[in-house]
Specification:
mainly alpha
Length: 372
């Protein structure tokens, strides 16, 4: 039987502890050294860029030596990170001058748009993000960079595609945005619906032109993209009521698209759609999802016919229809006759839903300090 010497075990334990302490000390010292090096490097970049900014201010051009240095140094991602931070800090001091500097550095940025396009997707994603944040698009676009970034949207990396699209939204060209979206869709690449509709709202160009082009190409997009486009239009304050209404009543599009359009008309009130919405509420053999969504959005069309239809829906066998109908009624201006009809509901589930919903609204208004 092997017997362990306690002294040996203690020495091993002490050795491990001392090794960990030494490692921690060296790691901390190295971290401090690297931080100092990083600060010195950042200072040199800022100083070098500032010299060129001053030259531009005096009507001179950027030194070729400065451009040559950028061509070599920015091949390393760490140097590009430092360069980005230098640009960020200098923009806080004088954004206009830094923008002019970046325009004069366009040949370098063109080169690296292609250079990082040959690297791993994480590098492409970072470079696209750098351009979307700091390139002065208001001073003019760059077709060579546009062409290079357009290739980024076809890569499998979600981050690469997202940052490439952010570049095009900042770029403000509706043609480029629509082209890029079609490339993504045709390649069957993933673009989250909510993210796409939210990203479209970041577009810095002519929003009416973008909406028009998206609508012109609407049929060429997949269902998922069509839903995102409609959701974008819902929050874009662009009037496409007539066109979307025609799509809805055509019965030629997917159910998800139709439901998205109905939600659109919940925010963008359009009197011509009311008979269509009322028909959905009164039909018993319709897909229940239509009725659920209509009950949710129809409070924007407050009138007697709508209130009567919702009062009937409160007794629906579907929980979501009852819930949304009761919630919409709670938002509307109920008359004495409406209240009497609600009190006359015999369905127990409907009564419970009304009691729960109206109580929740009253409590919410009390918290806001509103008169109930």
């Amino acid at each position: 039987m092997m017997v362990f010497n306690p002294t040996v075990i203690i020495y091993i334990y002490i050795y491990i502890i001392v090794s960990l302490i030494v490692f921690d000390i060296f790691y901390t010292l190295n971290d401090k050294v690297q931080a100092k090096k990083g600060k010195r490097k950042l200072y040199k970049y800022k100083e070098s860029i500032q010299v060129q900014i001053d030259k531009i201010g005096n009507g001179e051009v950027i030194d070729k030596e400065h451009l040559r240095n950028l061509y070599w140094k920015l091949r390393g991602i760490n140097n590009l990170l430092t360069y980005q931070e230098a640009i960020r800090q200098l923009k806080l001091i004088d954004c206009e001058k830094v923008d002019k500097y970046l325009i004069m550095c366009s040949p370098v940025l063109q080169f690296f748009a292609h250079f990082y396009g040959q690297k791993d997707s994480i590098y492409k994603a970072f470079f696209a993000a750098f351009l979307s944040k700091y390139y002065p698009f208001h001073l003019g676009g760059n077709s060579i960079i546009d062409e290079a970034i357009m290739k980024y949207v076809e890569y499998n990396s979600i981050y690469c595609r997202e940052n490439a699209m952010l570049y095009f939204y900042e770029r403000g060209s509706s043609n480029l945005v629509v082209t890029a979206l079609k490339k993504i869709d045709e390649a069957g690449l993933y673009y989250n619906r909510k993210l796409l509709s939210n990203d479209l709202l970041k577009f810095k160009g002519d929003k009416k032109k973008l909406a028009k082009q998206l609508f012109e190409e609407f049929d060429s997009f997949s269902v998922s993209f069509q839903v995102s486009i409609v959701n974008y239009l819902r929050f874009s304050s662009i009037d496409l009521n007539d066109s979307l209404f025609q799509i809805l009543i055509s019965k030629s599009y997917d159910k998800e698209v139709n439901l998205a359009i109905i939600r659109y008309f919940g925010k963008n009130v359009y009197s011509k759609i009311l008979p269509y919405l009322l028909t959905i509420l009164k039909m018993d053999d319709i897909d229940v999802e239509y009725k659920i969504i209509v009950c949710q959005i129809i409070s924007a069309y407050d009138c007697k016919d709508v209130r009567d239809a919702l009062i009937t829906c409160v007794s629906s066998s579907n929980w979501y229809v009852r819930k949304n109908a009761a919630s919409s009624l709670a938002k509307m201006k109920l008359t004495v006759s409406d209240k009497e009809k609600l009190l006359g509901i015999k369905d127990n589930y409907g009564k419970q839903m009304l009691k729960y919903t109206f109580k929740a609204v009253i409590n919410k208004n009390k918290k806001k300090g509103e008169v109930v």
